[in-house]
Specification:
Layout (H helix, E strand, L loop, with lengths): L9 H8 L7 E2 L3 E2 H6 L2 H5 L8 E6 L3 H14 L3 E6 L4 H5 L10 H14 L4 E6 L8 H13 L4 E5 L10 H4 L7 H10 L4 E5 L5 H7 L5 E3 L2 H5 L7 H4 L10 H7 L1 H9 L5 H4 L12 H11 L7 H22 L1
Parallel strand pairs: 1-3, 2-3, 3-4, 4-5, 5-6, 6-7, 7-8
Helix pairs in contact: 4-6, 6-7, 16-17
EC number: 1.3.1.91
Pfam families: Dus
Function: Catalyzes the synthesis of 5,6-dihydrouridine (D), a modified base found in the D-loop of most tRNAs, via the reduction of the C5-C6 double bond in target uridines. Specifically modifies U20 and U20a in tRNAs.
């Protein structure tokens, strides 16, 4: 599941873990400066239930990234991922993100220093190209140089990025998807793990892509319809446990919600990530309505979730009777 700014925080990850136990999750991208100078407990804290978990770092200073990798290992993360794909102007001005694709030697140095600082896997997420540095040969050159530095996992967003003229949102939609180039990359680098990202929305597409690459990353679709991962543990990871129902997912969140509300967290910091759980079924609208209208109040607690869930159940029963 892709790292997504303002989405894949610890509360979303814990929620998703009630649906899938084996899918690799990522933090939001955290800059090396924020980690080295900020509140690490707040930025990096997570519950063991969120694992397996990868920390995505943004930065271009090899020594700073190495220090962050060491910190992440001490905190119990399972992987360190370097962001070489974000096209935002803020990231670009900071000299990292997708602009680093034009400086593969710099990325290689970052990887080398990070690998010296940690025993964890150090991976890279990048685009197929950036601006006019977007030929297949350019991407091969980037992967070759970074792989020679020791990186064995490349997560490839199958769209190029434009640093000028397109917003980050537009860079997720407008540049065309070029899946075949990622498939070709796997053929040219059979010894490294190639994972594809971009425009994938269901598990059928995942299974199709796994015929050509080693792994698949899903981003926005995972947030817009999180329950699509309910069968991923069985279909992708070979776990035969019965997936939880949507009702069970909600009920399993009660202790977590109780804990955080008791710590002073407003309920909507958690429920905002749960709004799309019932996407596409009767009751989805009332579920969202109850949560959005009530979760922001001081003192709101699991009773709001219970009320919303009962309303969904009621509508589902009415729908079932009409169908009969």
């Amino acid at each position: 599941m892709a790292p997504m700014m303002d989405r894949t925080d610890r509360h979303f990850r814990y929620f998703i873990r009630q649906i899938t136990k084996h899918t690799l999750l990522y933090t939001e991208m955290l800059t090396s400066a924020a980690i080295l100078n900020g509140d690490r407990k707040n930025l990096l804290g997570f519950f063991p239930e969120e694992k397996p978990l990868s920390l995505q770092l943004g930065g271009s200073n090899p020594q700073h990234l190495a220090e962050c990798a060491h910190i992440a290992e001490d905190m119990g993360y399972d992987e360190i991922n370097l962001n070489v794909g974000c096209p935002s102007s803020r990231v670009y001005d900071g000299g990292f993100g997708v602009s680093l694709m034009m400086h593969p030697e710099r990325v290689a140095k970052c990887i080398e220093e990070m690998m010296l600082a940690t025993k964890l896997p150090v991976t890279v997420k990048h685009r197929i190209g950036v601006d006019n540095y977007d030929s297949y040969e350019d991407m091969v050159n980037f992967v070759r140089i970074v792989a020679e530095a020791g990186c064995e996992v490349f997560v490839v967003h199958a769209r190029k990025a434009w640093l000028q003229g397109l917003s980050p949102k537009e860079n997720r939609d407008i540049p065309p998807l070029r899946y075949s180039e990622v498939h070709h990359l796997k053929q040219d680098f059979p010894h490294v793990f190639i994972e594809i990202n971009g425009g994938l929305t269901d598990l059928e597409q995942v299974q199709e892509q796994l015929q050509f690459v080693d792994g698949v990353m899903i981003g926005r679709a995972a947030y817009d319809n999180p329950y699509l991962f309910a069968n991923s543990d069985k279909l992708i990871h070979g776990n035969n446990d019965t997936p939880p129902s949507k009702y069970q997912v909600v009920e399993s969140m009660y202790p977590y919600v109780d804990y955080w509300v008791s710590q002073g967290l407003k309920l909507n910091r958690i429920t905002r990530h749960m709004l799309n759980l019932f996407s596409g079924q009767p009751g989805s609208r009332v579920w969202k309505q109850v949560l959005m209208e009530n979760s922001h109040y001081e003192g709101a607690n699991t009773e709001i979730l219970r009320t919303a869930l009962e309303k969904v159940k009621g509508l589902e029963e009415i729908t079932s009777r009409k169908q009969v």
